[in-house]
UniProtKB/TrEMBL annotation:
Protein's name according to its UniProt entry: Cystatin domain-containing protein
Keywords: Heme, Iron, Membrane, Metal-binding, Transmembrane, Transmembrane helix
GO function terms (MF aspect): electron transfer activity; heme binding; metal ion binding
Signal sequence bounds: none
One CC-aspect GO term: membrane
């Protein structure tokens, strides 16, 4: 449920989410996010579907571990990142 309002009486209320709603952060602020992720601030994943080749399929394969993608690991200083790259068949 998302906070919304005010209604005709000036009261705030909650409503079901919409596709256009921004995904809320699981952390109260950036410092808490860094503390929970070994000093690295997690990216905003609101528009990740539009930013990756394969759109929704990318997210599905990321979550299910599909073998059509290979895991590439890169080490940039103290932060290690993993990305999935589509096999070129």
């Amino acid at each position: 449920m998302y906070p919304d309002g005010p209604d005709d009486n000036g009261n705030m209320f909650e409503r079901p989410g919409r596709l256009t709603d921004v995904l809320p952060s699981p952390y109260p602020n950036k410092e808490a996010a860094r503390a929970a992720n070994n000093g690295a601030e997690p990216p905003d994943l609101t528009y990740i579907v539009k930013a990756r080749e394969g759109n929704e399929n990318y997210i599905f394969h990321l979550l299910t571990g599909n073998s059509n993608y290979e895991r590439c690991v890169s080490n940039n200083g103290d932060i290690q990142t993993e990305t999935l790259v589509r096999y070129k068949n």
